[in-house]
Amino acid sequence: MPALPRLSDESPDPAVLEVSMRAVIASKQYPGAKPSQVWTYEGGVPGPLLEANAGDQLMVHFRNELPEATTIHWHGVRVPAKMDGTVLMQTGIEPGQSFEYSFQLKDPGLFWFHPHMRSDIQVEKGLYGAVLVRGPMEPIVDHETVLVLDDVRVNPDGTFPEYLDDESKMMGREGNMLLVNGVAQPQIPMQSGALERLRLVNVANGRFFNLRLEDHSFRVIGTDGGLVETPWDTETLLLAPGERYDVVLIPAGKPGKSLTLWNEPYARGHDSGAAAPVQLASVRLATTSLTGRTLPESFPAIEKLQAPAADIPVALGESFDDKGELVFTINGEVFPNVPVVQVANGSVHTMGVKNESDMDHPFHLHGFFFQRQNGDPPRNKDTIIVKAHESMDLTARFDEPGKWVYHCHILEHAEGGMVGELHVE
Ligand code: C2O
Ligand code: CU
Q1: From ligand 1's centre to the CA of 134, what distance in Å?
Q2: Closest atom, ligand 1, to C-alpha of 242
Q3: Domain co-membership, 55 together with 100
Q4: What is the predicted pLDDT for the residue at 401?
Q5: Closest C-alpha residue for ligand 1 atom 3
């Protein structure tokens, strides 16, 4: 599997990561198809991996060389609102125009970036990249790999389908090819007996990834907002679009052995989930190196937000509009008609998210982490699966002024109306 591309750091200051990055059209060859025209950050799908330390400043001299306007949203990064890449806070960056994104990376974790204009189209065409921010309390492991998960629907002539079929309108676009770091069916090298850390992000428009590694389980040590207090073990790891997980495993097996990384079916509503498991990648075991490293049993405590009773109702719905078009609603309305939520800067509120539809929605809040109130140790998340007909309370401290959005991260649902505005004043 090829390493993720990197950009050269233009700043001599070790506490600043300064890069130049263009959005440009490029050509990419998917297996079994003629070359495809893709939209990329600096020519690659995925775009560059931006790696820095918590507390560093990230400066991106961005230039749009695409034929239409775009922006960059820094998914999960707690940025000032004017750096958030939504059209509430900046105008679209027109073809040939530039924009300076500059902000501090406050939190360790794996984040990602993508356009926030026509995102169902622009992300699908290949515009996404990962941001890896290291913190002071990182566990020491033998080897670490960032895995960016996507899928793409490619016609044999290399084109992507122009219009959405009914299934894709309803469930979000799913591809016919699964990609790990832009590659179908890659081989991921790992060392037998070593502590292997995987940092995963799902950047697909609509597909949920439900991973299982043959004969192994995953120890989850972190999620969207960095390390969790109490790791847990799981046989399958479910990631909805937008979500991240940080897991560790110790691969067992003779050098040379291959383990299959499967994508297991997952039912997310409307009769989905009947498909057979699909091979996503294979893990190739190399020489045994028994370092004897072990993981800590726990990580530093996360400040638990004291939750007021839910006072921001968010009902997620699906229905048909007057013209018979399928729409996705929040509190019965389609964006931009969803009533704006106003909160005071610095206040803590609980969003009572209620899924009234027949399918799961990955709920995403810009600008702030939230904590689910379910009795578990606190976890900082920015994207969470709200299953069909499930309700959950999500508490956040709204301590950055500006106009923010919350929405479903199935990009076709967001474009179909499932977006709300939240103003912090
Ligand atoms: Cu990654 Cu508004 O989203
Ligand atoms: Cu949705």
Answers
A1: 22
A2: 1
A3: yes
A4: 98
A5: 75
- Ligand nearest to C-alpha 404: 1
Of 354, 361, 365, nearest to 332 by C-alpha is 354
Whether residue 116 has its Cβ less than 6 Å from ligand 1? yes
Percent of the chain with pLDDT over 70: 100
- Is the CB of residue 212 below 6 angstroms from any atom belonging to ligand 1? no
* pTM (predicted TM-score): 0.98
Confirm whether 318 is domain-assigned. Answer: yes
Residues of the chain with pLDDT under 50: none
| Residue 302 falls inside a structural domain | no
Interval between CA 359 and ligand 2 midpoint (Å):
8
Please report the pLDDT score of residue 296 as a whole number.
Answer: 93
Centroid of ligand 1 to alpha carbon of 187 (angstroms): 29
Residue range(s) defining the domain that contains residue 368: 312-424
Contacts of 211 by beta carbon, 8 Å cutoff, 6+ apart: 200, 218, 236, 237, 238, 239, 261, 262, 263, 264, 280
**Shared-domain flag, residues 78 and 46:** yes
As a whole number of angstroms, the distance between CA 92 and CA 215 comes to 48
Nearest CA to ligand 1 atom 1: 75
**Residue 111 counted as domain residue:** yes
| Ligand 1 centroid from CA 334, angstroms | 17
Q: 111: exposed, middle or buried (C-beta count within 10 Å: 0-12, 13-18, 19+)?
A: buried
Give the domain CATH number at 163. 2.60.40.420
Q: Looking at the domain assignment, is residue 149 inside a domain?
A: yes
Residues 149 and 224 in one domain: yes
